[in-house]
Task: structure prediction
Amino acid sequence: MALIVHKYGGTSMGSPERIRNVARRVAKWHHAGHQMVVVPSAMSGETNRLLGLAKELAPHGSGNAHDRELDMLAATGEQASSALLALALQAEGLAAVSFTGWQVPIRTNSAHTKARIESIDDARVRAELDAGKVVIVTGFQGIDPNSNITTLGRGGSDTSAVAVAAALKAAECMIFTDVDGVYTTDPRVVPEARRLLRISFEEMLEMASLGSKVLQIRSVEFAGKYKVPLRVLSSFTPPDIDLVLEAASGTLITFEEDEDMERAVVSGIAFNRDEAKLSVLGVPDTPGIAYQILGAVAEANVEVDVILQNSGRDGKTDFSFTVQQGDYQKTLDLLTKVVAPKLGAEEVTGDPRICKVSIVGIGMRSHVGVASRMFKCLSDEAINIQMISTSEIKTSVVIDEKYMELAVRALHREFDLDQPADTISQ
Ligand code: ASP
Ligand code: MG
Result:
């Protein structure tokens, strides 16, 4: 008998029929002797609907008082779906009870609409489990030190589930969702993309931060930090599917590089269209130039990703970096109106039509020449690389957006990702 946490996304909770299927699936696990905690999202579309109503009434709303009410409002979506699931479980003949974030309680800081979990009191949940009940805990929400309801940011139920699993030292946190696992890349771009049986937390973190949106990134960070075994699997299989089969399905995100880890050099290809490039040309090549440019950008609350400084010539240099698409215009204005005149820069240019493509794999630690294989592959496709950035387990390139799909497909082939891992020669 194990303590297992199931998390169901909005699509899985999308209608009474689907909630009944969730109840049947949970009941199957309960009948097999496991202690079950379930963390549901709001029914699909509900969070958007609620936030849309808020927008109608306060189109220009902002600030703490406004955000507090958004949290009051949005948290009701999960309260409703949790109660519905408890009712459905009771209708299946199980004892079930649901708790909101504040009833558990799940304590967070006070950053409304993007709060962080600080601690979870497990006593109440444990007592109900010991009494033989299935316990449902609302996703997405908590309570701050002043008893205000908070929410964890969009997609935050993933993080709730992992945090609850960590607090209860669950054997596994199973994230049931509308995809059947984590893929080598987006199957919409590369139809040959394969589901990974396992992926390490570090790789998953890179994949998630690079725009592969299977899990909220904070949930992966949390799982890595607290060593919660995490599995992503499909909620579209029949609810009465064999439990042993189900327990081994999807993708397991592991925290150790264990022996049967798939041994590919590159585990996946991630891409992100949501970036834009800015360049400040002809700035004096003197100490402090990077700080003067990026310091001003950071002060405007813009996050910078890839950075490139050319080697200087005739006392001048060029400086380029990427930002999120949404920050592009603001950053361009800042550079043109404030930074460039102050530094005596010759020109500011920008290009919103770029994308970042990355290869990710812990195998890169022990294999040399992986990056150059990537560059050769792109050059064979006549794709020009504008910027490069690397970390221990990742190499990213910035290229023209119109070559994105071509690049991803070519790299997927180059690193044999369409082959089952065990047929890959080392
Ligand atoms: N219901 C919330 C959202 O749509 C949280 C979640 O589903 O994870 O963002
Ligand atoms: Mg989600």
Notes: The first strand starts at residue 3 and ends at 8. Residues 422-426 have pLDDT under 50 and may be disordered. The chain has twelve helices and 18 strands.
